[in-house]
Amino acid sequence: MPSDDGSVGTRADLFEEVQLTMASELLGHAPVLLGNPRADVAELRFLASRLCESLRDTARLAESRGGRLDAYADGAAALVPGNTAGSGQEPS
To answer: How many CA atoms lie within 13 A of 48 on its CB side?
Structure first.
């Protein structure tokens, strides 16, 4: 989902795409390694480390994207006449 906030937003979107692609590829490799009875401890630790990094990155992306979506939703809700969502006011 490209953003419209210039080069910084475009770079952030590209960075997110790279991280999500890497996570997807890692998840593709994980079952193969985990299903290999000859996989050694070093290989499994490496996999676990990369999975942890990937999970941390994707959680950070989800949190960041969620914050931006919340801000967008609050701004869009304010454009609807009579809508008090995101304003801290109770509906009348």
So the answer is: 7
